[in-house]
Amino acid sequence: MRQPKAFNLKEFDVFKKLNSPSKIQDFIDAIPINFEKNGETCWSPLSVLKHNKAHCLEGALLAAAIFWYHGKPPLLLDLVTTQNDDYHTVALFKEGNLWGAISKTNHAFLRYRDPVFKNVRELAMSYFNEYFLDSGKKTLRSYSGAFDLTKFGEDWLVAKNNLWNIAEALDNAKHYKILNSRQIKRLRSADKIEIKAGKLIQWKK
User: Fold this and answer.
1) Would the pLDDT of 2 be above 80?
2) Do residues 151 and 128 make contact, with C-beta atoms less than 8 angstroms apart?
3) CATH class belonging to 5-198
4) pTM higher than 0.85, yes or no?
5) Which H/E stretch holds residue 180?
6) Residue 1 has pLDDT above 90, yes or no
7) Dist CA 205 CA 201 (whole Å)
């Protein structure tokens, strides 16, 4: 896979040593959370490196860029919830025929996935029981297919403006429903200890 010319920038030199999913996840974990105190953002990988903070989509874009640097396709997975919860996006990768994911999150759940999943649906479903509100209501409802960022060229790697075009395209991409109305009614709420564990955070506002 052709490496974009943008990777010649010195800011991307840090990618050289991030040559495994575990190293990429450790790098993403070390970046403070972007709480968007001055308004919503969707920063490019270069902007994330300069600001040294990221929310889930920005972290996924950065991780996808690192995979691209190392010759793997830059792929995202979009996880869509009910309207009263926040969507989540992760960067997908494959080792052999198995899928894994890099995740930027501030909470104890919805984190890294080892490459042990046979397909994207299986990986997406691994987040199902972790995805709930403080009430215990489980909220994950659909997931996208593997979303290939190469369709946007390489400008997104270094863009100074917010990448709302990518965020919108991801929202509008084909998604696959997880549940029907009957299954939703039968869902068991997360129990008290799960809810308590779900409130653990890595970064404070």
Assistant:
1) no
2) no
3) alpha beta
4) yes
5) none
6) no
7) 10
**193 burial type by CB count under 10 A (0-12 exposed, 13-18 middle, 19+ buried):** exposed
Give the distance from CA 141 to its chain's centroid.
16
Per-residue pLDDT, 3: 83
d(CA 146, CA 55): 20
Mean pLDDT of the residues in the chain: 97
- Residue 124's alpha-carbon distances to 22, 92, 200, in angstroms, are 19, 10, 22
Handedness of CA 122, 126, 132, 136 (dihedral sign): positive
Which residue do the tokens 């010759």 mark? 71
In the chain, the amino acid numbered 44 is S
Give the closest residue to 88 by CA, choosing from 46, 121, 55, 44. Answer: 55
- pLDDT tens sequence across 154-173: 999 999 999 999 999 999 99
Q: Of 5, 161, 117, 112, give the one whose Cα is nearest residue 69.
A: 5
Residue type, 67: F
Q: Would the CA dihedral through 145, 146, 150, 152 be positive or negative?
A: positive
3-33 pLDDT tens trace: 899 999 999 999 999 999 999 999 999 999 9
